[in-house]
Amino acid sequence: MNTTALLSIKDLSLGFKTGKQTNQVLHSIDFNIMQNEIVGVVGESGSGKSVTNLAVLGLLPKRITEITSGNILFEGSDLLQLADNELQKIRGNKISMIFQEPMSSLNPSMRCGKQVTEILLRHTNLSKKAAKEETLKLFNQVKLPRPEAAFKAYPHEISGGQKQRVMIAMAIACKPKLLIADEPTTALDVTVQKEIILLLKELQQQTEMSILFISHDLSLVSEIADRVIVMYRGKIIEQGSAKTIFNDPKEDYTKALIYARPSTSERLAKLPTVSDFLKGNALAKPVSRAERELEHEKIYSKTPLLEIKNATKEYYSKVSFFGKTETLKAVNEVSFKIYEGETLGLVGESGCGKSTLGNLILQLDKTTSGAIFYKGKDLTLLSSKELRTLRKDIQIIFQDPYSSLNPRLTVGRSITEAMQVHKLYKSSEERKAEALKLLQEVGLLPEHYDRYPQEFSGGQRQRIGIARTIAVRPKFIVCDESVSALDISVQAQVLNLLNTLKTSYGFTYLFISHDLAVVKYISDRLLVMRNGRFEETGEADTVYENPQSDYTKALIEAIPKGI
Questions:
Q1: What pLDDT, in 10s, does the model give residues 227-249?
Q2: What are the boundaries of each domain within the chain?
Q3: Helix (H, G, I), strand (E, B) or coil at 101
Q4: C-alpha count within 13 angstroms, C-beta hemisphere, residue 333
Q5: Check: CATH 3.40.309.10 for 38-54+84-259?
């Protein structure tokens, strides 16, 4: 590794102006990135990770950003002193960035291929034909299935994992000297995540570029980074080699980040949160196999709440205007039962049919064939009026808490609106009282009732989403990737909350996720899905400890283990 610093951030302090006040968010940030080095930055939401990196690229809003001290030196030039046109020559060319949320980063009205060729045409001397060829090479390099089809597809026509690969292709198109990867694998399958980590390491070795890898997952960072920086409340509290930080952390906060992830070796009754660790609270006791078996005897002695029989969902697409129609079986003759009080985990990679199956149960999409029975009634045969009545019983907690909340409605209005639609409680005063009670149950405060979604962090928004979901007293809840975009510590809080609510309200969950460690922790049973079918089913711990399918083994193997 070269000992020359490619990027030096020196004594950087900045804040955001609100009226006459400035809210300080970074305090004397100081670190270097050497040439041909991978540096990981870890910390929770609000720790200052993304703000630091947006400052490097000059992407913070100038009107409200106040830099009180510091320099950002890239190849000797202070980026803070450069004019906009000079920064534009560096962005995407010498310094590139992979953003966390590809759907909001990609242009929805442009085909994926054109978005990459546009960058090549802007920063290189390639012809249109050569730019297209280079884009297809990049799509191959980031292991996009059917690169030609992806080139012509719009972002909404491909999966989340595939969109992230397009973003990575865009970022590496001009062979940058520094690649900033801001939570680039947060919403990806563990197998895809592993491939992306290996891909970034391989690209780094080939091109000798430096990478600044931002994540809340210390285990994941340990698999890619040479050095690790730990941030907390706008400060760097610890930094050192990945091996030292992971195996011998000095700060309690760093230790807390390591412990907050669900353990793959033991099952705790309650996940330790960062707050628990910092307060010195005793860790919850492990749940014994005998305790679990006793609980499962109670659950599985009941009549199934929901039963799916040979459910199939087909989608059709034309290869060309005059071409033949292609059929894709997103869900292919699946059958299973869910029992009252159970958490059934549904795991698999993007495109395997998990969310489609969830949508079929929710009747947001119709089955091509097969039946879905809820309390003995076939949902596929219900009228629109009957379905509207059923919506109260079957609810969903979405993956993205921000896009699922109306930004024009206050938190209180979002929660009480659902109650009003289903004619719950006699007056608006009663509905407000219940909403305030629910906010406290999900760990929020009464004063949050009159605030808007944009005033909250991601973890808080997810809690609001959960409060809105349980406001109508459902029996069955589909959790569709409901913790995948959250910090490790916030994820632990939400998983604990879901378990607490399950006990107090008697909920039944279908928990859909690509993260096998999370699904294993929260589930009673596991369904492993691949290409629209089930690869393996069984008690969660048993499937994890003794997987029968090669595919399940690959999913388990891909979980970041740390050093």
A1: 999 999 899 999 999 989 988 89
A2: 38-54+84-259
A3: coil
A4: 0
A5: no
